[in-house]
Amino acid sequence: MPVHSFPTPPPTPAVLIAAGDIASCNSSGDEATAALVEGIDGVVATLGDSVYTRGTPDEFAECFDPSWGRFKDRIRPATGNHEYLTPGAAGYYEYFGAAAGEPTEGYYSYDHGAWHIIVLNSVCWEVGGCTDEDPQAQWLEADLRAHPAQCTLAYWHYPRFSSGQHGDSDIVSAYWRILADAGAEIVLTGHDHDYERLAPMNAVGEEDLDFGMRQFVVGTGGASHYPFPDSPPPNSQVRDATTFGVLVLKLYQDRYEWEFVPVSGGSFIDAGSGVCHP
Asked: H or E element: which one contains 43?
């Protein structure tokens, strides 16, 4: 009898859905992005400023919970500057509980499929300092040593590089350098209320298509839009300041695919793929 061979099915990727700058009782954008997330299975990464304006318990209950709160059991949050307008970001830590990490830290890590995921607190002066000598940076170095995965992704709120209204954030440069030196693949951020994809860059922000980290700014969760003030710098590859939406990452064992998914009625899209560093 003939022997039949069948193609090996493609591997199933781990899915990460990301956006920051999300909920406001003065905007319907968070309801529109929540409708997107509801139809996508995967871990949800909130990139800071989950709710406006001060991250109070009432704002989480009244403005965040009715929209993105339905995904609370699969959210792995990062804190932003607006949460800390409530002292100690108490409303944020109360709402997310253990998923947000220790309230004196706000940084933690987890594995998702074959990928190691690191969540940092870019409001770093609130948790011991922002240099490579301070507790968060020391923890980051130790965590990377303890999890030598081929594929690594990190996310936090302040973008290291951005051509948006807030611009580059030197305050997170220590974390960028540590991750770049360790060979991480992707950094996700928010803060600027826009979408921007930048070319892979090395530890000092120079384009490095072979070994650099690719950064996305995804401040498109629904709160508002910020216009871009200037023409894009050389390392900015794609940007949009008109469309709410989420970034969907498909994380395979040695590569990844990304797609920016706009809310209903939005026309801006971005998609592509990359490989993990050897």
From this structure: strand 43-47
Residues 118, 111: Cα–Cα separation, whole Å: 9
Cross-strand partners of 18: 45, 247
Q: Distance between CA atoms of 194 and 119, rounded to whole angstroms?
A: 21
Domains of the chain listed by start with CATH number: 14-275 (3.60.21.10)
Cβ atoms of 77 and 92 closer than 8 Å: yes
What pLDDT, in 10s, does the model give residues 39-72? 999 999 999 999 999 999 999 999 999 999 999 9
Q: Provide the angle, in degrees to the nearest 10, between the axes of the packed helices 173-181 and 135-146.
A: 20
Of 21, 70, 25, 18, whose CA–CA distance to 42 is shortest?
Answer: 18
Query: What are the pLDDT digits (tens) for 219-261?
Result: 999 999 999 988 888 899 999 999 999 999 999 999 999 999 9
Encoded tokens for 81: 């500057």
| Residue 73, Cβ density class (10 Å: 0-12 exposed, 13-18 middle, ≥19 buried) | exposed
